[in-house]
Amino acid sequence: MGTVTSLGNDSNTFWENLIAGKSGIARVTSFPIDDYPCKVGSEVKNFEASDFMDVKEARRNDPYTHYAVAASIQAVEDSQLNLTHVNKERLGVIIGSGIGGLKTIEIQSKKLHELGPRKVSPFMIPSLIVNIATGIVAIKMGAKGPSMTTVSACASGSHAIGVSFNHLCHGMADIMITGGSEASVTALGYAGFCSMKAMSTSFNDTPEKASRPFDAKRDGFVMGEGAGVLVLETLEHALARNAPIYCELIGYASTSDAYHITGPEPDGKGIELCMRDALNDAKVSPESIDYINAHGTSTDQNDKSETLALKSIFKDRAPQIPISSTKSMIGHLLGAAGGIEAAIIAKVIQNGEIPPTINYEDPDSKCDLYYVPNKKIKKEVNIAMSNSIGFGGHNVSIIMKAYKAENEKK
């Protein structure tokens, strides 16, 4: 795995800060924020794109591509994958993004209106298109197998992982580099989401308190940026090269609310069906789930509806299952969220520690499950689930399981 986030630009630093309950959220610094109702964000810090690509290439690409390339290179290194010994026709790349090159759109639109069409960069189109991060990662890795980009708003990263999983299961590839990347902490991104009144505005003076999933005082999400990328591999291929294995991906499902362009179905039936289908795909029961990384955006509607869905699926067990929203610490990374959160549940399974939901201080009677409030817990986790929900009614659930040698006999 590889990660780029406000809590660190590599997966170990990120995990150490996350499990310690630290917040990466602060006052936005990348553009003048004074005129915006929401003034806080989860920005990537101390990141140099030139550490991962040529300076000229970095200059003509959008930050969302920078993050995707960095996380992909880290993931391949972490997997101990020797690309010179890999059948490149069996190596694929699917990296999701909800928006793509938003910063590029801003910069080039300004040039058009202020300086005229001849000043617009010839690299504008390939820099802003949502699939270009996948394309550039494939070029860098020489990956000639399945290659595409999933675009389903905040479910994009999880969809990428799920589609990659199916490609492996159906014999279309041996290895998939997959996850999500986003760089929407921009003036235009904030203007749009602030106009929707979707973002937190009550904690501008205490940014680290702004993202508070399931808490009664939540008042909107906090924008994040970064990338999370995994190397998925068939078990046979992984064992043949003695690969280090974090865990197994055993289930994936995708559904639609078919309800509203931005709001989730109030009763949570769409994400409930998704979780049920993922459990069926994984061939495990609700009783087997040890941990859930919730979508948990810190918005009123999402947190209520997801809680209802969790109660419906897990019944009497629902209040006992550790559930956390790590968005409380890194904000909402939109299309990158699913990639980051899949990496988190893999780390949970590996390390036997569950990250907290920080800022859970005032319980909401409509959100009354065990959200691992404010401090990590130690717990052996055999099977974990991650949920993603996106504008347009998109839902994704993925399920991972601890890898044991006896699992090979399945």
CATH topology: Peroxisomal Thiolase, Chain A, domain 1
- At the first level of CATH, the class is Alpha Beta
- CATH homologous superfamily identity: Thiolase/Chalcone synthase
Radius of gyration: 20 Å
End-to-end C-alpha gap: 25 Å
Uncertain stretches of 5 or more adjacent residues: none
Using the 3D structure, state the CATH architecture.
3-Layer(aba) Sandwich
Helical segment count: 13
Numbering strands along the chain, what is their spatial order in the largest sheet?
1-7-6-4-5
SSE-based structural type: alpha/beta
H/E element string? Answer: EHEEHHEHHHEHEHEHEHEHEHHEEEE
Helix content range: 25-40%
Tell me what you see in this structure.
This protein has 410 residues and is of the alpha/beta class. The chain has a single domain, classed as Peroxisomal Thiolase, Chain A, domain 1 (3-Layer(aba) Sandwich), CATH 3.40.47.10. The protein has 13 helices and 14 strands. The strands form 4 sheets. The chain has a 5-stranded mixed β-sheet, with helices on both faces. A 5-stranded mixed β-sheet has the order 8-14-13-9-10, with helices on both faces. A two-stranded antiparallel ribbon has the order 2-3. Helix 7 crosses helix 13.
List the helices and strands and how they pair.
Layout: E1 2-4, H1 11-19, E2 26-27, E3 40-41, H2 55-59, H3 63-78, E4 91-96, H4 102-115, H5 124-128, H6 132-141, E5 147-148, H7 156-169, E6 175-182, H8 187-195, E7 226-233, H9 235-240, E8 248-256, H10 269-282, E9 291-293, H11 300-314, E10 323-324, H12 327-330, H13 337-351, E11 353-354, E12 377-378, E13 383-390, E14 394-401
Parallel strand pairs: 4-5, 4-6, 9-10, 9-13
Antiparallel strand pairs: 1-7, 2-3, 6-7, 8-14, 11-12, 13-14
Helix pairs in contact: 3-6, 7-13, 10-11
